[in-house]
Design brief:
Length: about 500
């Protein structure tokens, strides 16, 4: 495991930060964990609540097989141990948005055991972050404090939604490492399809555990900052909380194990409540649910359904297609990008042109979409049309300059490139007779510069190329123009 050199300087010297993350990821499924209620984001309050979610008497939970399947697939993608036998426990506490008076979770026997994620923070050496466990649990509802001047309302739409709690080891040592971990985990979840990773909508959020110590000393007392909902905020919460703890310790104080909240507007953490230990929740096995027992056929189906994951895809792009490390990273970071590029490669059907395709996607397509404020999902250019455009360049029909013109028209109109080329007469000219004729006119009109060139001013060659291309409206084959000019000027 690579160690970071990140340190925070205090009045008494350097301090090291120790970070662990508990990421709650909402499972992509057809219903909630123990009921058939829908889970769509943005529904009217209390519009997606079954009798089970509302804890009506006599309602018994039934595990949603798809939720279990997605959690197992996630564990496999993290190279984690899949426990064939697991059990649900009741975590007992009272809160207004928890109708049952307990949360069904997995404390003692989780569905998924130890795994790992490899990160490369800010281009540093790769580092392996351990995964301690993944357990499935139901979410609570939501209290809304801004709907009435004196009352709080309860929305139970989220009550019973299936969550995977992915618990890391305390292996991270800097905000950058924590940010890289969350980004990598989010990427893997989105590749697998087990969570949409939308942190803004709350379908993925992190509890951030932070402690500080002098380098090499035992772990210090940690605090937990709850429900942080962006990578940037995770990093900011770590930075502030670590500095706060150092200030307390250097002033002679002690760190209290507690739960805190992050205020993104102020960039600070604030105390929420003292940290409860597990026994305070009075965990016990849920008497309404049998243990989960997974057979080999189910595990094999989960394993066979996994897609090519980002690390494997990145290696294939570099080693098999010859892409640069940077291009491979960009094209595999987000699953939508990778799928779009894979579709483009399938349309091209020639791996030898993969480098050119990658360069075009990253420089031309991404630049245009960024300028238009659009994403790949609503790109006006399809992989099929992009492949056609690149093919017209490869076979000499279009020069790079003409290809840029055609691309701009594609962005504006959505037309296919071959249609644009035919309708607007944008084909590249490779007729040497026509090129020679235009070159002759250019040289005749610039006899003085011809004499200067032949007298030793070689840099004038670029002038003649430019004049020739201008005279042919950019449609001349640049390689032929260079070749014929060289022959006619030096002949």
């Amino acid at each position: 495991m690579s160690e970071t050199s990140y340190r925070i300087e205090g009045a008494t010297g350097a301090w090291e930060v120790v970070i662990g993350l508990e990421v709650h990821a909402q499972v992509t499924s057809n219903a909630k964990l123990f009921s058939g209620a829908a889970t769509a984001f943005g529904a009217e309050p209390n519009a997606q609540v079954s009798l089970i979610d509302a804890a009506m008497p006599g309602m018994l939970p039934v595990p949603n097989k798809e939720c279990i399947r997605q959690a197992v697939r996630t564990g496999m993608a993290l190279d984690a141990v899949i426990n064939r036998w697991s059990r649900f426990d009741r975590k007992n506490y009272f809160y207004a948005d928890l109708p049952q008076g307990y949360q069904i979770s997995q404390l003692y026997h989780p569905l998924v055991g130890e795994g790992s994620i490899e990160i490369e923070p800010d281009g540093d050496a790769p580092k392996t972050i351990g995964i301690e466990r993944i357990h499935v649990e139901q979410d609570a509802g939501k209290l809304m404090h801004d709907q009435h001047p004196t009352r709080s309302y309860v929305d139970l739409n989220r009550a019973g939604v299936a969550l995977m709690e992915i618990v890391s080891r305390p292996d991270m040592r800097s905000p950058a490492e924590a940010g890289a971990y969350v980004r990598k985990l989010r990427s893997i979840l989105r590749y697998v399809g087990s969570c949409d990773g939308n942190m803004e909508e709350g379908s993925m959020r992190a509890d951030v555990n932070v402690s500080v110590r002098k380098p090499g000393a035992p772990f210090g007392t940690r605090t937990e900052t709850k429900n942080v909902n962006s990578v940037r905020f995770v990093m900011a919460a770590i930075e502030h909380e670590a500095r706060r703890q150092i200030d307390v310790l250097e002033a002679g104080g002690t760190i209290v194990q507690e739960t805190r909240l992050f205020d993104p507007d102020q960039g600070v953490t604030r105390s929420m409540r003292s940290k409860e230990d597990a026994h305070d929740y009075r965990y016990f096995p849920d008497p309404d649910l049998l243990p989960l027992e997974l057979d080999e056929a189910f595990l094999a189906e989960c394993r066979d359904s996994l897609p090519e994951l980002p690390d494997a895809k990145r290696r294939r792009y570099q080693e098999g297609l010859g892409l640069s490390a940077y291009n491979a990273d960009v094209l595999t970071a987000e699953v939508e990008t990778a799928r779009w590029f894979e579709a483009l490669l399938a349309e091209i059907g020639d791996d030898s042109r993969a480098k050119a395709a990658a360069n075009w996607v990253i420089s031309e397509l991404f630049g245009a979409l960024n300028r238009l404020g659009r994403s790949l999902d609503d790109s006006p250019v399809t992989p099929k049309d992009a492949a056609t455009l690149l093919g017209l360049v490869a076979d000499g029909t279009l020069s790079n300059t003409l290809a840029k013109q055609v691309f701009e028209i594609m962005l504006e109109t959505g037309e296919a490139p071959d249609v644009i080329v035919e309708a607007r007469g944008l084909k590249q000219t490779s007729d040497t007779g026509e090129i020679d004729r235009v070159i002759g006119e250019v040289l005749s009109a610039n006899a003085d510069k011809v004499a200067d060139y032949r007298g030793g001013k070689d840099k004038l060659f670029g002038f003649f190329v430019g004049q020739t291309m201008k005279a042919m409206a950019g449609k001349a084959n640049p390689a032929l123009v260079n070749e014929r000019l060289k022959a006619l000027l030096d002949g």
